[in-house]
């Protein structure tokens, strides 16, 4: 195992939540906790990305974002990791393939907000991602209806599980996905950054 990577045992159910976490906030914690409950996950790894190809503006330094994310958490089941930087992967499809090679026998679930499902069809090799591991989608404010009607949701409709089967998601053969509702948090990293810049 490469030094500095998270530990996991075969048979574990682990959610992967990717993002810039610029900065991490309570909304990230809320969707993580909701995903752990709904999908019966043993762990959730926050994959703090070196940079998001779909965002024009570069994020704050990686070490700063990781430190900020870790400072928010007190649940040892939520692990903040710079695995993409260590593996030198930039695209989600490459990260998932590398993680699945490194951790045979672990049941990974990709986690995303419904706002990401809306643009999922713009991700590099998005169909490959959907065929690689199950996907858990958490409803975000103002994006539930658009997410349900998105290109990706329509193309993947036949593999959508009912909410009542959400706990089975980690063990389902992909493609498989479910959209769950959760208490709404209007917090966003963009809004927090803008508020900080206004104060400065």
From TrEMBL:
Residues 16-194 form the Cytidyltransferase-like domain. Keywords: ATP-binding, NAD, Nucleotide-binding, Nucleotidyltransferase, Pyridine nucleotide biosynthesis, Transferase. GO terms for molecular function: nicotinate-nucleotide adenylyltransferase activity. It catalyses: nicotinate beta-D-ribonucleotide + ATP + H(+) = deamido-NAD(+) + diphosphate. InterPro entries: Cyt_trans-like, NadD/NMNAT, Rossmann-like_a/b/a_fold. It is an enzyme of class 2 (transferase). CDD domains: NMNAT. Its EC number is 2.7.7.18. Pathway: Cofactor biosynthesis; NAD(+) biosynthesis; deamido-NAD(+) from nicotinate D-ribonucleotide: step 1/1. SUPFAM superfamilies: Nucleotidylyl transferase. Catalyzes the reversible adenylation of nicotinate mononucleotide (NaMN) to nicotinic acid adenine dinucleotide (NaAD). HAMAP family: NaMN_adenylyltr. NCBIfam families: nicotinate (nicotinamide) nucleotide adenylyltransferase, PRK00071.2-2, PRK00071.2-4. Belongs to the NadD family. PANTHER family: NICOTINATE-NUCLEOTIDE ADENYLYLTRANSFERASE-RELATED (PTHR39321), PHOSPHOPANTETHEINE ADENYLYLTRANSFERASE (PTHR39321:SF3). This is Probable nicotinate-nucleotide adenylyltransferase. The gene is nadD.
């Amino acid at each position: 195992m490469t030094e500095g990577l998270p530990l996991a045992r075969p048979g574990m159910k682990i959610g992967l939540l990717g993002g810039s976490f610029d900065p991490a906030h309570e909304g990230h914690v809320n969707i993580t906790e909701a995903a752990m409950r709904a999908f019966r996950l043993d762990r959730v790894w926050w994959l703090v990305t070196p940079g998001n190809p779909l965002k024009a503006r570069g994020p704050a330094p990686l070490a700063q974002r990781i430190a900020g994310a870790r400072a928010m958490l007190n649940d040892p089941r939520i692990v903040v990791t710079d695995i993409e930087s260590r593996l030198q992967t930039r695209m989600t499809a490459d990260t998932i393939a590398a993680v699945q090679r490194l951790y045979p026998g672990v049941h990974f679930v990709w986690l995303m907000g419904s706002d990401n499902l809306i643009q999922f069809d713009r991700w590099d090799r998005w169909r490959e991602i959907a065929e690689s591991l199950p996907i858990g989608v958490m409803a975000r404010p103002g994006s539930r209806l658009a997410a349900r009607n998105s290109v990706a949701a329509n193309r993947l409709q036949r593999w959508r599980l009912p909410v009542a089967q959400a706990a089975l998601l980690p063990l389902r053969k992909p493609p498989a996905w479910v959209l769950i509702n959760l208490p709404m948090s209007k917090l966003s990293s963009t809004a927090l950054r803008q508020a900080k810049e206004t104060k400065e």
